[in-house]
Amino acid sequence: MQCLVQENDSLADVFYQVKDIDEQIFGVILEIFIKEKVQGCIGYLSDNGNQKIQEQYILEQGENLIEDDNKQQFYDFQNNIKLITNVLKKIKDHGFNTLDYSNEEYEESIKNLIKRIKQDRKIIEFLKFLVHLTSIDKTFLQCGSNSLHILVQMKVDLRNNNFENIQIQNTSLVEANFVRCNLSGSQFNNVNISGINLNGAILINCKWKNLKIHELNKVNGHTNYVYSVCFSPNGNILASSSRDNSIRLWDVKTGQSKAKLDCHSNGVNSVCFSSDGNTLACGSGDKFIHLWNVKTKKKIVKFVGHLDTVNSVCFSPNGKRLASGSSDNSIRLWDVKTRQQKAILDGHTSYVLSVCFSPDGTTLASGSSDNSIRLWDVQTGQQKATFGSHKNWVIYDKSILLWDVKTGQQKAKLDGHSNGVNSVCFSPHGNSLASGSKDTSIRLWNVKTGQQKAKLDGHTSDVYSVSFSPDGNTLASGGSDKSIRLWDVKTGQYKPKQNGHTSVISSVCFSPDGNTQASGSYDKSICLWDVRTGQQKARFDGHTRTVYSICFSPDGTTLASGSDDHSIRLWDIKIGQQTAILDGHTSTVYSVCYSIDGNILASASKDKSILLWDVKTGQQNLKLYGHTSTVYSVCFSPDGTTLASGSYDNSIRLWDVKTGQQKAKLDGHSSCINSVCFSPDGNTLASGSDDKSIRLWDVKTGQQKAKLDGHTSDVYSVSFSPDGNTLASGGSDKSIRLWDVKTGQYKPKQNGHTSVISSVCFSPDGNTQASGSYDKSICLWDVRTGQQKARFDGHTRTVYSICFSPDGTTLASGSDDHSIRLWDIKIGQQTAILDGHTSTVYSVCYSIDGNILASASKDKSILLWDVKTGQQNLKLYGHTSTVYSVCFSPDGTTLASGSYDNSICLWDVKTGQQNLKLYGHTSTVNSVCFSPDGNTLASGSNDKSIRLWDVKKGQQKAKLDGNTSYVYSVSFSSDGNKLASGSYDKSICIWDVKTGQQKAKLDGHSNCINSVCFSPDGNTLASGSSDYSIRLWDVKEIYSSDKNYKDNLPLEFANSPFQLYINPIVATLIISQYISFEAQSTIIFKGEFINHQGKDLCYLLKNRGACFLESSLNISQNSINI
């Protein structure tokens, strides 16, 4: 790795050589190269190209060239060309032009390179020059590809760029933003394009091959939970059933829907193919079973007999029998040929949830909510055996049991899932088992060893069904997130970003090399994380109760953990296996810590004692007593002579490791100490407490050096990074925080929101966007790049509303925790908490002068606050139920409010008197907004309508209908001509205020729109959704003015009305923790788009909204013929 770092240091030095070059020269050189059809750029620059480039440069400079300075400028020009030539020579022979720098092994060195060059605009332009050079000189393909990767990693704004004919290979462009770029003639080979944004881009005659894209492995179509998935015997078709009452057949290769089978009047719980693949069986909540002809898509027969929901169906291996399990507690066997019921198997005392035939067809297994599994003789119908070790319903007790069918003995118990297991499936060869759980994960198990092989994360809710393809290479899964996902069993892909633990994080710890961070949780698991990327590397399951403490051995090979199960466990990091269990404590083990030489392990317990263990032998050496209550944390000093301990008795104690004697007692915390940790130099001790603070202590003097505040609840763990510059802390607020030890400042991770986006708002200058979320946080984003600028944590429940002050220096937020908080944008700190409401605060709004803040609440009141003093000025009563929205008029004299009582009130801000009450909506008014001139008020309601009101007259001017569900948010553009609305129907509508006509409908979000907001210039619209994402939309009329779309189209489309088939408004930026492939209004003509498995991506592109001009041309010609 050191070699790589040095190589990239030299690469940065090479790039620095161009930092003083006039960037206009790069464009001139490319223009000449294209005009002269140059193939060897270095030779051309070295031999005969200077004169032509110089002439073109002079021509483009024109009057900017002052005659007196001509000679000097010509001299500088010649030197610049020589410099560029030399730089290209160095890069050509560098690893940057031969190796794939997007590989994981180069990640650290690329980050270091980016740190050095990210602020230099001319180096960025040079990287763009290298990207364009791939269209001219094939010897620079890899260096140009690496350059594009770096530009993407740097979040350089690449939108609206011309990238015609570029050739990109062997790299990753994950989350690249190519909105409205011209990529015509481009060639991509072995490129990861997952999550890229191609909205509005032009892709004509492109050749993209061997593409990697995770999105292809997710198919959407069902409108409700997916309960069951099943592969056909040949593996070409996937069947799925859903709570939406339908069955769908999918082409596994293309991901395209082949058929939708409707017949059930309730959710379809189970589907199963016959052994020959010609028949499909399905069972439903309507109590019926249907058989379908797969080829003709026609229904064959309907089996009637069950008295309640049919939960599971399964064909016998020969296809002659069908078994079904039902909530009527029975199993039924059906003769497929005669279509008659052959037998009823009774025995279960509760719902039969699953049935499965043995491979030879002689035995049937059934699982039930009576907590038992039963084996049945298919010929006689008699029960052969009962297995009853599950502690809950077979699908709910979180464990998987393997049984010996002959003896009825339990062979293994597979623990790992943190919630009920809904589905299990053996691979065709029988060596692996897949399980899908209510904990949203899929796990792969080694049947022989009982060990977990992999954990597949991607579903955002319960996984109801898993099924292997016949060749065992692909696993299909369906869940309550309405999606079906296909997984590569070998690689574990599809893999979106990790979400983390599912409960309180109790402990965090860095590995000795600083590259890995471990975390222990109430969810009983231990996770390993990549510090640089934040990605989960591994997960250890084994403890049967909360994991309270974790610690790496000094050599980084072993991790120790202490748990509420009274045990200490040692884990091998490399193989991911448990190697030892140390028993000795009589109660919860709250802390474990290795000595610097790794020979001693200390442990602290609720039994008030500290134990010192010999790691090699596993024997107990010493027992330290002194604390008067639970000992929550222990930590060795770097020299191994001193042990620190923190206790429920509010004290910290220092111990002599050799003698076991107490050396000192540190007092200061006002509540119990949960964690203590020495700095690498041993001079500082950090402590975390239930008083929500972290304290830094001088070890020699015993004095407190600093107090770090930021956590909103108990601090459970603290840990220094190896260099001592960073302190990590974890607490019951479910967050991990990184602190700068020198400054004491909090360094939040910038991962985005992890839940519903409830509110979005632009800063007055339009450069920053704020968002509030159900995850209790507020984030600030750079509007141009989409990068997170800051994160504010403090609210203890959902943040429902945010609003910038008119001068942009302060942000106000309202929350379900009943409070309003004010945040200083510059320093990123909370400056005030305004308490007054007795329930949820749904809306906050500043007056135009910034002196008054209005807030609306579930307590039916509106409060007006003096921003400077933080005092409550007025309390407005008038609504008879929850007030959801407030908005000041532009002149600041009037306040509008909308309520659950279906009414809108207009208030006099000075007196607090109600001026008017507007009636018209027939359901909840969710949002109110004044027009810029203050004459019109817009309101959005659960009655699906938007209404425009004349403020002076108090009368309704217009009613805008078009949304198919609740309207949650409305916002006027700055000129007052447009109105945007966001709805529960997942769409955004843009309205012409004068005519009341809908101008555009914006689709892209996959869940309801909670908030919409125009930028100050009116050109951009922001939307926040329950799909956890924020989208920025370019709402300018682009096609009339943007020649890029017309000049780059083939001649045959000069008069084609292709514009009728695409939406001119696209999302130019998507901010989300989950990557999403975008292709809305992408223009495609005569291209190839093939992934690394040979699958055609055209269906995916069409599914994401791309416009194929071949189709448009045919439509146009057909219209003319008619």
From TrEMBL:
Repressor found in the keyword field: no
Top-level taxonomic group: Eukaryota
Swiss-Prot/TrEMBL keywords: Repeat, WD repeat
SMART domains associated with the record: PQQ, WD40
Coiled-coil regions listed in the entry: none
WD repeats: from-to residues: 219-260, 261-302, 303-344, 345-386, 414-455, 456-497, 498-539, 540-581, 582-623, 624-665, 666-707, 708-749, 750-791, 792-833, 834-875, 876-917, 918-959, 960-1001, 1002-1036
Domain (EML-like second beta-propeller) ranges: 227-386
PANTHER family: CHROMOSOME UNDETERMINED SCAFFOLD_625, WHOLE GENOME SHOTGUN SEQUENCE, MEMBRANE PROTEIN-RELATED
Protein name, entry field: EML-like second beta-propeller domain-containing protein
Organism: Paramecium pentaurelia
